[in-house]
């Protein structure tokens, strides 16, 4: 149990995972010791900086959620990956840890021997998915080694397939940088990119918005983010009323508290951007060692926030559009008599912003707005459909937030419910075909969907 706990902690910590991968790559390149040291520490420190920024963002979104709930009198379920994971650990701790370890092993084997050469480095998302898989497979009758092997395979397979699904759009987002999307909102980002492609012909990029000289300060991402979020917080604070806001602000003036929260949110975004620059500066060169020596042509799949600096304006536009989609989805669910899914600001910020970046890359402003809006609808409806699947294990008051969790959980849960273990093994067989077939039909040393050079 002690070793399992240690391995689980290491594998669910993206900073350490990135550092270890960079170290392996640098050693494979026979870099001198001082370069191995600095090249290993760079991604670790960069990710810790990114995580610190994300922590600032999340901690400042929490009071905003409470003010919106009270101010607009909304009651329901708020999707939260961290909350449901902590609940599930009491029931399925060992299974989740073991699925996580097997998932990483399967991911590396798939990257080595198939054309899905994507190494998934976002450890906390792997941990969340391992938790979802243990819960859903347990609910349909799996247990012990059967659950661990099947869950580990699903985790490893989706960790390899999901970056490939979005990769053609990711190359457009990053202008050809050798990174992939390693975040389980990938189906939402793919849909946002596809919508951008469909509706965005002739639409200028969000980053090309012409700003008059007197408003030129808005081109500073940190300042424009701060002003946008201050407005959000003030509206929510006015709706909630000073008496309620005072319970959150520890005696500080309610409106000053709202303004400071908005400003601190912008600081969190700035820290995320600084961390991303540090990660990419060291991880991509070091990863060339893995891509040439260990897993030929491997591509690192990294957290969604890594893509924010490529289109900072689309980040804010995507967040707002996704949140509006989430609100509309909540009202539709309420009208239909279903459980209310209150828009969780953390998934709407991180997933909505990323959907905006993808929509913008493929379809400019129209793509960013419509793509992120549709993503917001998905973040409302999918958690509502997932709740009954998880409810059998007693997770009735919370649910997973991001798109892939909803789709994977619903598919596995419904197939298991209708067809039992036979249906689940049928899905395993389908995934094996998806993984193996491209290698047989169109052999290539280059990762599937990774660039125009996808030929022999």
UniProtKB/TrEMBL annotation:
GO cellular component, one term: plasma membrane
GO BP terms: phosphoenolpyruvate-dependent sugar phosphotransferase system
Topology relative to the membrane: Multi-pass membrane protein
Keyword annotations: Cell membrane, Membrane, Phosphotransferase system, Sugar transport, Transmembrane, Transmembrane helix, Transport
Subcellular location: Cell membrane
Coiled coil spans: none
TM region(s), chain numbering: 12-29, 36-57, 96-114, 126-159, 179-200, 221-242, 254-276, 315-335, 341-361, 368-390, 422-441
Family of the protein in this entry: Belongs to the UlaA family.
Assembly notes: Homodimer.
Function: The phosphoenolpyruvate-dependent sugar phosphotransferase system (sugar PTS), a major carbohydrate active transport system, catalyzes the phosphorylation of incoming sugar substrates concomitantly with their translocation across the cell membrane. The enzyme II UlaABC PTS system is involved in ascorbate transport.
Official protein name in the record: Ascorbate-specific PTS system EIIC component
């Amino acid at each position: 149990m002690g070793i399992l706990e240690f391995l689980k902690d290491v594998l669910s910590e993206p900073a350490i995972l990135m550092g270890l991968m960079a170290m392996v790559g640098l050693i494979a390149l026979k870099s001198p010791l001082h370069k191995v040291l600095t090249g290993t520490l760079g991604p670790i420190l960069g990710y810790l900086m990114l995580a610190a920024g994300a922590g600032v963002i999340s901690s400042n979104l929490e009071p905003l959620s409470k003010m919106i709930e009270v101010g607009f009198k909304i009651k329901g379920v708020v999707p939260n990956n961290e909350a449901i994971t902590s609940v599930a650990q009491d029931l399925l701790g060992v299974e989740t840890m073991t699925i996580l370890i097997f998932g990483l092993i399967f991911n590396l084997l798939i990257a080595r021997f198939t054309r899905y050469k994507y190494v998934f480095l976002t450890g906390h998302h792997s941990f969340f998915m391992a938790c979802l898989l243990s819960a859903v497979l347990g609910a349909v009758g799996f247990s012990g080694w059967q659950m661990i092997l099947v869950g580990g395979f699903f985790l490893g397979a989706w960790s390899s397939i999901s970056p490939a699904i979005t990769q053609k759009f990711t190359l457009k987002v990053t202008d050809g940088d050798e990174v992939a999307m390693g975040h389980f909102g990938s189906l939402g980002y793919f849909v946002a990119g596809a919508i951008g492609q469909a509706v965005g012909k002739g639409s200028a990029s969000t980053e090309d918005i012409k700003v008059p000289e007197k408003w030129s300060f808005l081109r500073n991402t940190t300042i424009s983010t701060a002003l946008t979020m201050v407005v959000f917080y003030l509206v929510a604070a006015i709706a909630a009323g000073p008496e309620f806001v005072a319970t959150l602000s520890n005696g500080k003036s309610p409106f000053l508290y709202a303004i400071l929260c908005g400003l601190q949110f912008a600081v969190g975004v700035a820290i995320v951007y600084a961390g991303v620059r540090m990660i990419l500066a060291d991880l991509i060169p070091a990863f060339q060692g893995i891509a040439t020596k260990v897993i030929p042509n491997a591509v690192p799949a990294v957290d969604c926030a890594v893509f924010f600096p490529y289109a900072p304006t689309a980040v804010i536009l995507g967040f707002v559009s996704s949140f509006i989609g989430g609100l509309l989805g909540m009202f539709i669910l309420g009208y239909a008599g279903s459980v209310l899914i209150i828009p969780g600001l953390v998934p709407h910020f991180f997933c909505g912003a990323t959907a905006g970046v993808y929509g913008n890359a493929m379809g400019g402003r129209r793509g960013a707005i419509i793509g992120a809006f549709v993503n917001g609808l998905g973040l409302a409806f999918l958690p509502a459909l997932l709740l009954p699947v998880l409810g059998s294990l007693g997770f009735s008051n919370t649910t997973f937030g991001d798109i892939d969790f909803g789709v994977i959980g619903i598919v596995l849960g419904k197939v298991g419910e209708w067809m039992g273990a036979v249906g689940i093994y049928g899905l395993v067989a389908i995934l094996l075909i998806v993984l193996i077939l491209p290698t047989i039909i169109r052999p290539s040393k280059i990762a599937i969907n990774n660039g125009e050079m996808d030929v022999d």
